[in-house]
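Q: I'm writing up a methods section and want to include an example of the input and output format. Could you take the sequence below and give the corresponding predicted structure tokens, formatted cleanly so I can copy it straight into the document?
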Amino acid sequence: MFQQNIEETTSPTTPAVADASPIMPDIPRTSAIRTTYDGDVFNYVSLAMRLTRGKLLKQPDWGDWQSSEYTQLDQYDAQGMFGEPTRVNSDGAVFNLVWTYVVKELDKRKKARCTCDGSTRSGQVRVLDYTYANCVEQTSSRLFYAVAAAENMLVFGADVSNAFGEAPPPKQGFFIRPDKAFQHWWVHHKGRTPIPHGHVIPILAAMQGHPEAGRLWEKHADAILRSIGLTPTVHEPCLYSGIINGERVTFLRQVDDFAVAAPSEHTANVLFDMIDDRITFPLKRMGLIDMFNGLDISQTRHYIKLSCKTYIERISKGHLDTWMSVKDMPNRPTPLPSKDTFMRDFLSAEGSKDPKEQAKLAKEMGFGYRQGIGQLIWPYTICRPDIAYAVVRASQYSSAPAPIHYNGVRHALKYLYCTKDDGIYFWRTTPNDALPDVPPPTINSNAHDLLLDGRPTHDALDPHGYMDSDWAACLRTRRSFGGTCIRLAGGPVAYRSRLQKTVAGSSTEAEFMEASDTGKMMLYVRSVMYDLGIPQGAASLLYEDNDACIAIGNAQKPTTRTRHIDIRYFSLCEWIERDLVLLDRIDTTQNMSDHFTKQLNPVLFARHTDYVMGRI
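A: Here is the clean output for your methods example:
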């Protein structure tokens, strides 16, 4: 298991006292993340975080890393985290410290992070309160940027140093065992008396790693933001709005990272100053953000663009060194090969269920199938709806993929690399002269393929949706494939591609089921916008290309062929009656949600994604 290169000693005269030596929990190593004991401390190691203290001790820049260790512990100390060394009974909750060493992507800063191992595997954690802490949902994140663009605001970022230590301690009192890094800091950096053997350190604030710490910090941060005049939305507690310095602002909280959309940098700084007055360390201010929560943000005079180029380049590096070559990709690529026979073979193929055969196939292909799917899911969920259908379809074969499924994932990864600069565009209502004038995005379609005539138009803050379904598309279950796209400020704030949950008896039923699910998404968007101070005075339009579905919804005109449809889907009729949503007719050739339900030829794919991504 672990490299037990330390000696554990116990005093025979104090058998009921917890030993301060590190205890090696039985933690299995996995390919994703593991804990190792190296350099006299525990280290979290993963594919993204490979550094350990033992390795760093041998490097010429060890002084920089040790300085980072000191900085981390100094911050804890300033927050009143550590009590005086003490003994504790053997039933006391005593945790090991765990260190993580990374080079930050944004500024290439060397960072050492110290947490406690408060997982259940430590055997001593007792959870006495709720542990759930909110993270911002991706739809709400996109909604934040769409509103910022529509209201012509600038987005500024800030980061809280050692955020969890700002919050009060959990109900369960606990202690940490001082490891070699802590001992060195305590004696050589702080000039204190060496910690006696068998003594532990009481923890007097929330410490990252404890199950309750995340929720404690969220409650603390929420109280701070409310105290300065910001109000969270009901359905997205990480999204706020309010009046600061006499101007309207919106605020996004993602754990300890903050983003504020404000008319000017001065107003943003006033807000950050108010937060500074309520925390131990001043916020790290990032100015106009160009990266936030894994997203690359481009703020220009005419639009805000969300992309994930940094992420794509990072995951592609390993593939480029082995199997990936993009020389054979066409000028207008699609996420899956556009050959007529490919999708037929892709959907009907079955892979071997023998684990040895699957391991052999993965070795031949140069990557694990689920690894490839996982690398595609992240960009799909945050800012790349153009790969939605390919990712969802390919993920259906994760348990036993065949060679053709691997080829499909390979093609999708190559497509992602070839289009790494692409992303979602939210358009400003008026140019912002404080920002650079960047050329507009490239439109992939020919002018005559865009079918501009008759396209519906909407105001920037008028949400509207598109939906479609491919009836009985699954050859195995005969379930239909549904797709949804809700737009605001010229780009998608919500989208989805998935197999419907039940088998539809007709194409009308499949369309009606998708319309109902789209209505739910629209109600969520409308609710968040209402709480942000952007109420909707009229029903939001949902565009549909099936006349029977529209008649059932708008005119409440069921027939003998629709009586079997689950009653929950008829909630759509009530929402229409209450003027919350309304179904409207659109031609199939202009229904951009067609992209979410099937593999399209290059011409149709380019047409629909030009609109879906917000390039037009």
